[in-house]
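for the writeup, i need someone to sanity check this before i put it in the appendix. the sequnce is what the collaborator sent (i think, or maybe the updated version? ugh). structure was predicted straight from it, no edits. if anything looks off just tell me and ill rerun, i have time this weekend
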Amino acid sequence: MNPPTLIGAPLDSGQRQPGCLMGPAAYRVAGLPGMLAELGAPALDRGDLMLTGHMPECDVPNPALDQLPETLAWTGLIRSAVEAELADDRMPIVLGGDHALALGSVSGAAAHAAGVGRPLFLLWLDAHSDFHTPRSTMSGNLHGTPVAYAAGRDGFAPFPPFPAPVPAERICLFGIRSVDTAEHTALKECNIAVNDMRVLDEQGIAAPLRAFLDRVRAEAGMLHVSLDVDFLDPSIAPAVGTTVPGGATFREAHLVCELIHETGLMTSLDLVELNPFLDDRGRTARLMVDLVGSLMGRKVFDRPTRSPI
């Protein structure tokens, strides 16, 4: 893996529950930079991105849309930051912030991959498929749209065209357990594999994930991993505004991350939807930092015993 860079993306504009903008600070307080240094992968911390100036003026294609100008501005800012780190042979780790940040991070990764002539693969670790468009969403929350944007679905104006849409066979939705009817129909039409929790219960965690990672390796692809707090079961990760019961357990989540690390394929990473206001004494932030440790090579049995807080 390339050396990591931390990029704070304190955006709350993709949804209406305030608090995700505190996520980047929570990751740092929970020890992310120190943990990476201990693993021999000290990170360059770019600090937090900030919006400056006036928000872009744009037509609103759906009256339900919330905070569209802000999300448009964040998308361009994050795309540029991710693309720059990849061009410098570094691995951007985008600290969110809600999942709307992936509109920028995945487009930055896709633009870079296209520029160097390599295919981009997307591993979406999430309770939700996030396959709405700005026109189809009824909630108006743009954190529910990044996978559709990456896949090249129509209906994203005024967002810029996605630089190199990711084909269905290069997208893996993993841990899914909340998909509405419109998203389900759209997913079937484009034939994206949905590894929901029933699939994982029946087949186990390792088999479907290894099958996807084998395709990345076979095509010498770049791998963008987008890890949402609500991929985890809310009993172990309460700090998210979109909880869905039945998520990944502590050990399942670490297994996923260990398997990704063993391939050496991950080239960029999102950590999203952490809302410290909803956390229990930093419990979720520390767990997410632990998972990054597994993504970077630490095994569960390497972890020290913690005293209760």
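Residues 68-87 form the longest helix (20 residues). The mean pLDDT is 94.
thx in advance!!
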